[in-house]
Write a structure and sequence with these properties.
Blueprint: H1 11-39, H2 47-61, E1 69-78, H3 80-88, H4 92-98, E2 106-114, E3 120-126, E4 132-138, H5 144-151, H6 155-166, E5 175-181, E6 187-191, E7 200-206, E8 225-231, H7 234-273, H8 283-299, H9 301-310, H10 317-348, H11 362-395, E9 398-399, H12 418-451, H13 457-467, H14 469-477, E10 484-485, H15 488-508, H16 510-530, H17 537-562
Antiparallel strand pairs: 1-2, 2-3, 3-4, 4-8, 5-6, 6-7, 7-8, 9-10
Helix pairs in contact: 1-11, 7-10, 7-14, 8-10, 8-12, 10-12, 11-15, 11-16, 11-17, 12-13, 12-14, 12-16, 14-15, 15-16, 16-17
Keywords: Membrane, Transmembrane, Transmembrane helix
Transmembrane segments: 12-30, 250-270, 282-301, 321-346, 373-391, 460-481, 487-506, 537-558
Protein name: CAAX prenyl protease-like protein
Length: 566
């Protein structure tokens, strides 16, 4: 049994956590917050406000009454490649000054389904000002005038289309026809503004077939579109395509397939080593994981929608939701079997890393783990900051944007901190408790066979350290989908951090490393919330920082009130 009595923190750990916190603030927090304050950025519209502004624009520019709108959806969309290009080449400031006001790379896309009209009117709004910056009639064929122009476009047709766009706020003098058409069948116009680096701004217009220059205040929007894009240099686009292809391959062969194998192994070791523990172990945590992720899935329906749009398909919100729930149910099962199989494995090897509720000192152990978790989280944050800084300087690492993980695609952004608990529970049970346990069992078993007896203590320590590597690598490869490039940046970062997570679990126990993981994510998410520009999210960010402490205190007091007499 592990000692559940609360012990004072060693001063060395306190000093290490203090250094980690300072490094985190200096490298990750202060540069970002200082930049935000210097920009004096305006608050971001809420999703409800964006919906209302879209309905107002529909009445003002498209002659669509609010009573004719039967359904709306609001989705944050981002041009990840363009944001990545500006980030890689330090051009974000130039973009903010030159293009951000009229042609932002991040917008709210509001779909308005109008009674009696097929498809939907999708209006793109500036996320801060609410200005109309683009729109498109989704689910309708391109205008006939664009189709005709695709064969033999003329300057007269291009001028006609540009005049059509002017009815929706486009200034014709700002654009020059390129002499051709766009991939979508409309006309393409180059901006007269200077390029940013090698990035060039392009306007695309598709006019309805029956549009002619008239005095009508409301030219028909059905079959039309007025949008824009950024043309990036071909080498950069080719680089991003290679990176995305690598990310997919690494995710499939380095994470998904190993996860399936670990799932099978967890079931096997639950059967063979369940006698060393209880089959009730992990049921509660697996259910908590699934319940939280199910709730977050409903909360992230706009993010799921954004992901399918980016991939060029639109299966619908219900199918997205069903696929996600089935996936998380499978992950919950893996979490349960990892808990039972992992606890059984370690106990069969003479280690008890996870106290049980029925033990009298469980509540005190939770409080101790929570406190230690915060200190270890500061060490992890400091280490992460240094690693990312070194990778940025040595590999030219840069970040882009991803609408699928956007705060602005959450129906209730304040629920974001729950994601920290999903990650902390599942990843520590799967990758650390079970993953390290099974590889340590194999490595020590192999050494025992080769030696013909028990390996030395020093050899066991080396083998235990080596056992951290495979599950740490699988865990790292599960994060290559994040918008950080080169894609192996996160692999290097998380493999290095996996040694700390593994060491912390072996040194302090499972509960402490879960709290450390949750505190790490809660702090990062809290900082993100504090500066996302949404009303109320600063307070939500502060609450995120405190969530692990509140949960630890509640569990500790609840156990004290309900613990069985022993």
């Amino acid at each position: 049994m592990i000692d559940n009595r609360p012990l004072p923190l060693d001063r060395r750990w306190v000093w290490a956590s203090s250094v980690g916190l300072v490094l985190f603030l200096l490298i990750q927090v202060f540069p970002v917050t200082g930049q935000l304050f210097s920009m004096n950025s305006a608050p971001v519209l809420t999703r409800g406000e964006a919906e209302q502004r879209a309905i107002e624009w529909a009445a003002d520019k498209f002659n669509v009454a609010a009573s004719d709108v039967s359904k709306t959806t609001v989705t944050h969309m981002t041009d990840g490649k363009t944001n990545g290009y500006f980030s890689k080449h330090a051009l974000a400031d130039a973009y903010d000054k030159q293009w951000a006001a009229a042609t932002p790379t991040d917008v709210y896309v509001v779909e308005l389904y109008v009674n009696g009209v097929p498809g939907a009117l999708a209006v793109s709004l500036h996320m801060e000002s609410g200005e109309l910056v683009a729109w498109r009639h989704l689910g309708a064929a391109a205008g006939a005038s664009a189709g005709e122009a695709a064969e033999q476009p003329t300057a007269e047709q291009a001028a006609n289309a540009l005049q059509y766009a002017s009815a929706f706020g486009i200034r014709p003098d700002d654009w020059e026809w390129t002499g051709g058409t766009s991939a979508g069948g409309g006309f393409a116009y180059a901006s007269r503004q200077p390029a940013i680096g090698e990035a060039k701004l392009v306007l695309e217009v598709a006019a309805p077939a029956d549009f002619r220059l008239t005095d009508s205040a409301y030219p028909s929007w059905q079959g039309g579109a007025v949008s824009y894009r950024v043309d990036l240099p071909a080498p950069f686009l080719a680089y991003m395509e290679r990176q995305e292809r690598w990310a997919t391959e690494l995710s499939v062969f380095g994470f998904i397939l190993p996860q399936v194998l670990l799932f099978i192994l967890a079931i096997i070791y639950t059967g063979t080593h369940g006698g060393h523990t209880s089959y009730r172990r992990g049921i509660f945590l697996a259910l908590v994981f699934f319940a939280l992720y199910a709730g977050l899935t409903f909360n992230m329906i706009p993010g799921l929608r954004a992901g399918t749009w980016e991939s060029g398909i639109s299966p619908g919100d219900n199918l997205n939701l069903a696929v996600s729930l089935v996936t998380y149910a499978a992950m919950a099962l893996l979490t349960y079997f990892s808990a039972v199989g992992g606890d059984g494995l370690w106990k069969s090897m003479g280690r008890s890393l996870w106290p049980r509720w029925r033990e009298s000192g469980y509540g005190e152990a939770v409080l101790k783990s929570m406190k230690e978790g915060y200190f270890l989280a500061f060490i992890l944050l400091g280490a992460q900051s240094v690693i990312l800084l070194l990778l940025e300087k040595s590999l030219g690492a840069f970040a882009s944007s991803d609408a699928t993980q956007s705060m602005y695609n959450m129906s209730i952004p304040l629920l974001l901190p729950l994601l920290a608990w999903c990650a902390g529970i599942s990843e520590e049970l799967q990758s650390r408790l079970f993953g390290i346990g099974v590889f340590r069992k194999w490595f020590v078993g192999l050494a025992r066979k080769l030696k013909g007896g028990e390996p030395s203590k020093r050899t066991a320590v080396v083998l235990t350290t080596l056992a951290i590597v495979p599950p740490g690598l699988f865990w790292a490869l599960g994060h290559v989908g994040y918008a950080v490039y080169p894609v192996y940046t996160r692999v290097i970062e998380l493999v290095l951090l996996s040694f700390l997570f593994g060491w912390f679990m072996l040194r302090f126990g499972l509960m402490t490393v879960i709290f450390a993981h949750v505190a790490l994510d809660a702090i990062l998410m809290g900082m993100q919330m504090m500066f996302d520009g949404l009303p109320g999210d600063f307070a939500g960010g502060v609450f995120s920082l405190l969530t692990p402490a509140l949960v630890g205190i509640v569990i500790g007091r609840l156990h004290k009130a309900l613990r069985p007499q022993v």
